[in-house]
Amino acid sequence: MLMINETHDVNLTSWVTSANSKSDFPIQNLPFAIVKRKGQKEAFRGGVAIGDQVIDLAAVAKLKLFSGVPQEALEAASQSTLNDLMDLGDEANSALRLALSKALRADSPLQTALAPTLISQGDIEFGMPCQIGDYTDFYTSIYHATAVGKLFRPDNPLLPNYKWIPIGYHGRSSTIGISGQQFHRPVGQTKAPDALEPSFGPCKRLDYELEMGLFVGKSTQMGEIIKIENAEQHLFGVCIFNDWSARDIQAWEYQPLGPFLAKSFASTISPWIVTMEALAPYRSEFTRPETDPQTMSHLTSEHNSRYGGLDIDLSCFIQTKTMRENQQTMAQLSQSNFKYSYWTPAQLITHHASNGCAMRSGDLLGSGTQSGPTDEEAGSLLELSKGGKTPVDLPNGEKRTFLEDGDSIIMRASCSKQGAARIGFGEVEATILPAIV
Prior knowledge:
By secondary structure, this protein is an alpha+beta fold.
């Protein structure tokens, strides 16, 4: 497990002065994305955020300022996807992070050489950070699972397996898009409770899910298991993830095999990937209530118990079509925290590979909706509206039980604590277009 080192020093400042004030991207963060200049006919390549700038990693690689492992990792990060960088593993990525940290510090002798490689964040467009070969969505918030379960099984909201294994399903990677994604309202088969037979048409209960996405780093081969002690060597970093859901389609199709078309029409990720090493100061203890089943031995380690959780603040906002037309600001729907997760990132990847399933760099693991213990910390409209029975009031007088055409959902995430620099993930935003019928 990557631990705190000199790159996390709260006293570090950068010669990129915008990184030294209120920013998601101080020198203690250094998240990765795939970028290019807006309107330019040039290749996408790796970039690292520092303040309101992006350091062009392909341009830096050509300068040959680094050597050895950091230069090897830098050249991998210069490609059109981050897959090769991810597959180098945590030691190489840590070496590159340290080299970039030293190069960007206020006293760095490399400032003159590196300054021309900076691009303003306002002048870039993002590409997908990696080729996502496979995508698995988990169900790690016990508060979300309980709240949703109560809507269908009031006397027994949690199924018997929930506290024993991380529950997940295999999703569709082809419709995962970067922040700014626009998609048409899905069309599908639904069945009203009082109807004799199903009907086909636009989804009427469209919802968002406030999640985190975990990117697989170093690959494994088929038949190779991942021990929990080594699990985070196979995780590269974390992004914000909106797993859009068609609740009425899901209610009709999910038994007996689980989500299918209700989840495969769109998912949206934030462009910046915050590395697992950057998150080291924000690790939290992982515990279970004494009355719950204690985790099986293959999903347990001393390090996971002491540091397995992640203390990440999450917020979700809505901007309706009416808000945009009237130049009104977005409205907050809820806020939560990833520390409420019932399973840790290490447990998710260990469980995923426990049957010998091959994990490949760039694979995405969705955390599942991250709801907290109070109503205000619900990570979906399904919970906030009590299954559509209680409309959510917006500040401009509008109401929502589920999402309408033209609605944009914006999600943000950040980490902060005393004695550590605040770091952020940026945001993920996407907008719903009318159905094509």
